[in-house]
Design a protein that fits this description.
Layout: E1 13-17, E2 26-29, H1 35-45, E3 49-50, E4 63-64, E5 66-70, H2 77-95, E6 101-102, E7 106-111, E8 116-120, E9 131-138, E10 145-147, E11 150-153, E12 159-160, E13 168-172, E14 176-179, E15 182-185, E16 187-195
Antiparallel strand pairs: 1-2, 2-13, 3-5, 4-8, 5-7, 6-16, 7-16, 8-14, 9-13, 9-16, 10-15, 11-12, 11-14
Length: 200
Amino acid sequence: MTEGKVSDPTQDLRDSFVPHDEWATFVGIKRVFTPDQCARIVALGGETKRATIDGGRIEPRRRDGRVAWIGQSEETSWLFEQLRKRLDAVNNRFFHLKLAGFTEPLQLGCYGPEDHYGWHLDIGRGENRIRKLSFVVQLSDPEDYDGGVLQITTDGRPTAMLHEQGAMIAFPAFILHRVTPVMRGLRRSLVGWIGGPPFA
C-alpha cells in the first residue's frame, strides 16, 4: 500500500501564524495524511476508553470523550516515521525547540455529541513536564460532524484551527487550547507530543 511519501516535508507548510519574530504560536499543515491513511490510523486505535485528566480522574465538565492509545511497533512504524519527518521540519523552521523524540504513545480521540475538552495545557507535572511540542491530526471528514473545533489562544481570543481531514496542527505544549463541544456526528483526531528537556 502506498504511504504517500513527500519529498520535501516543508513544501506545503501554510496557514502559519507567527505573532513574533522569535517564535510561532502554531503551524497548520494540510494533507499530511490521505483519507485512506486516516482510516488506517483509526483502525490502529482499537477499543476506546473514557477520557481522563490529571492522572486518571474522570471529570466530564472539563473533558468528555473516549480515547485509545497507539504505541510504536512494526505495524505503526509508517505512522511514526511520517509524523517525525513532518514535525522535525516544522520545528526546524518555526519553533526551534530542543526535542528528543516520541516519549509516549499517540492518543486517538473520539468525540461524540456534547463531548468536549475545556481549556488546558499539555505540559504539566510528573511525566508531562517533558512534553515540548504538541500536535493534533484531524482524522474525520468535517462533513461528518458539527462543532468539535480545536481552538488556540494566547490573548483570550480563541482562534479556530484547520479541520480538514488529514491536516495537522503543531504548537508548543505550553499553549492554551481546547476542543469545543461536538453538536452532531463523531469527530476523531490523533494527538501526540514530542518530548525533550523540560522548559526552564
